[in-house]
């Protein structure tokens, strides 16, 4: 990326300490026993409430919800039973990325659901209910019912419910804000974004509890199984589910994992380390594809060292254009359509940056949402859609930037971006001295 206007000096002691951890694995994965078969010691009572607001509630208010669990929830054999009333059964622990599998059985006219990270909801109900028909019950269970109209996933793809009185099997995958739901072994929601019900326009919370919701009629749950995903698994699932959601689209690989064949520009400033493209320490410049693209989906896994700084060059001008129009100026943050920051923006070196310099931002033009990077030393998965003047950035399954650059008229430091309206160009990496790594570099041209 380009040099910061107020570039902070690197703290070498902290960097070297972080580098010692850089090669180690931070990944974790675990199968969680949510229900011990005896009691609700792993659970508490909570209703439909913003998790941030819940944290401010008094002990007395929380105790009232816990008392409702004692009154309206019970255990029969290996089954959890609710009578249709009271607070929702809520895990004591918060979870990030996971697969949640369980079985449920409803009575006629039942209406229930599953809250993910405390956010409503994956819908469960009786599709034959006349009372719920006005709300779309006939379409079946599994949909993300609180998604806004027009959002993918609001309604299930197929109706896969078994009749009331029979056991249904449901599996929910949540990675970032991307949700996939299977009901009785049929995909009913495919890699859809779960809307943040409590904060319109904001991404889903990074973590939160699972809640078993109910209102109005008895529901039973059994065989609850939660499998959390480490960074490596989450990235693989995202890459896999992205392709499935695009009808098995064929991405073009831009990196062979061995050398820089197919790349041009600052090739002498980058190297290949352990199957990844790495900017050399103290080096930089734009390493770009030999090919030129117009509209596309670009995806890549990247790993940041502490205070790491790089960028993704979108629609970067050709060598001929740079020589003729920009007199050799190679600053992709300005002469390309945009540079999408790749930055350890939580590091103390960057505590005073402009929001338009944070990770995922269209540099100097539009700020991305923050807080969705994995810890330094872990691999992140990022997908970028460039279509016309619109740019969308999804980091680890969460959309952090969704903007139309044609509408941008204010620039950081009043510095214009002459390339922002470009319609084609190279894709690449805009390095700046740090050993940031990239792998699984792929592109899908859009017709």
Characterise this structure.
This protein is mainly beta. The chain contains 6 helices and 26 strands. The strands form 4 sheets. Strands 1, 3, 4, 6, 9, 10, 11 and 13 form an 8-stranded antiparallel β-sheet that branches. Strands 14, 16, 17, 19, 22, 23, 24 and 26 form an 8-stranded antiparallel β-sheet that branches. The longest helix is centred in the middle third of the chain and has 15 residues. The chain is elongated, with a radius of gyration of 24 Å. 46% of the residues are buried. The N terminus is likely disordered.
Radius of gyration: 24 Å
Terminal CA distance: 29 Å
CATH topology-level fold name of the largest domain:
Jelly Rolls
Question: What is the count of DSSP helices, taking H or I runs of 4+ residues?
Answer: 6
Number of domains: 2
Do you know the CATH architecture of the largest domain? Sandwich
Number of E-state strands = 26
- Could you name the CATH homologous superfamily of the largest domain? Exo-inulinase, domain 1
Q: What is the helical fraction, as a range of percent?
A: 10-25%
Which secondary-structure class do the elements indicate?
Answer: mainly beta
**The CATH class of the largest domain:** Mainly Beta
- Bulk shape: elongated
The portion of residues forming beta strands comes to 35-45%
**Major β-sheet, in short?**
8 strands, antiparallel
Supply the key terms:
single chain; 447 residues; mainly beta; Jelly Rolls; 2 domains; eight-stranded antiparallel β-sheet; 6 helices; 26 strands; 12% helix
